[in-house]
Fold:
Amino acid sequence: MSADIDDNILEVSQLRVTFQQEHELTLAVDNVSFSLRKKQALGIVGESGSGKSVTSLSILNLLSGHTSNQTQGSILFDDNGDKIDLLSIEDKALYKIRGLRISMVFQEPMSSLNPVRKCGDQVKEVLDVHDIGLKSQRKDVVLDLYRQVSLPDVDRVYNSYPHELSGGQLQRVNIAMALAAKPDIIICDEPTTALDVTVQSQIIALLKDIVASQDISLIFITHDLDVVADICDSVIVMYQGKIVEEGLLPDLFLSPKHAYTQALLTCKPSKENRDMILPTVDQIVQKTYVPTQRVKHELDGAEDIIKVTDLSVHFPVKKTSFFGPRSHVKAVDQVSFSLRFREILGIVGESGSGKSTVANCIAGLIDPTAGQITYRGKDISPFILSKNRDLRTKIQLVFQDPYSSLNPKMSIGAAIKEPLRFHSIVPKDQLDTEVARLMDQVGLDASFVGRYPHQLSGGQRQRVCIARALSIRPELLICDESVSALDVSVQAQILNLLDDLRSKLDVSILFISHDLSVIHYLCDRVLVMKEGQVVERGTADQIMDDPQDPYTQRLINSLPKGII
Structure:
């Protein structure tokens, strides 16, 4: 990526970051060097632990509060012709650059905002801190920023608290905050990872427009290569703290040179590899991957495990007046479907479509307003499940966030052992043997038994949650967004595991996701939900190749196009 050095707004040279953890020294970033040109959209791609987020935090010296880290090298910022090393300048000078000249948009919009302050005040604070414009006009500036990022009803958003807005709206508030001081550089660290495909598509289009129209340089960090291909004009690939490949798009993705880049491209589920077991990054890098066909299941005539008939869930809304009528939100409205033995049924839809509410009703966590759910012909209302312990073991949930699903004070072995002991699955003297067997079943080494959740990666924690769910030998596994925040390689491992479990353990799976490419790869049939109703249903191929409902068509069109 040769360019005139005078055109560079940022030059990172020989960046090296190490962390001291107890008696162990971890090299997070290893001699990383790159430059960012004016008006350039640069992507930094890699899995968790590759060093991409540590690199981005180093640019604003946000690691300086960690006494256990050491940062070496230089990061030169072009301040109107003067080169300023962001790693060596005093804090006072750095404060004038953070938010004013270089701003950041983080992955989780809710945790990036103060929950007890209104969104308008939080964006206005940027103007107040840097004393930008007249005080009397700052609210109007914020409202104009909200319009720029296409927020609806800007006055309402200004006076709303973060919990009153959707994830996509919160991320737009964060982008408005990043734009408030008209910075030279915006750093976006995984800003679309947990968003619906339609919202992700809107955020990507917004950022592309910002770079093109406002002379802003962009650093976009992600593990999703298709997203990078949609927004960036050049890319850096990081692996184990180093840059292993860099170049212009689409050339780099069309003919990747490094095995790791090739692996990232190969691990993603797609139409082309739908009939194959997905490879992992390690298999591609180490050249041990052998293409293998997935096991095909004949489902015609198979027994219905779960049958849902006219299911409705209505939540009451706070009354606007003491004597006024109470209104309700129809989270689920007359939904009917069945799930067959050994089938993987996908439910797809945006946030608020009702898919998780359906899952919680089947698991007995929510009492439906109307309708019926039967398991092998038996009614399974929350009341019946609460009284019938044996029936309750037949249905298990795996949630989206494995970290919050596990007790941080409980070891992995204890977490898996707990349901075994509670439901008396095996004799007490066989508990340790059964835990070891379950861990082996989900691909976890037995040495992990004494570790705690914070000592495991995201994929390993999700395997623990699956092992715990399988411990009581269920016949139905409900996976609620269980791979949405995982790296492509870890996602491939979990998808392979779920497909393998239904073959070996005769488990049926209800798989909930907003990612149609994952749904298409894993599932036999698909339900598309919108505003509490099923708007389309069919085989995975029918839904993906020939969608009939405009909403389904919009979901598919919102998928990142990648390199075509």
Observations:
- Residues 197-213 form the longest helix (17 residues).
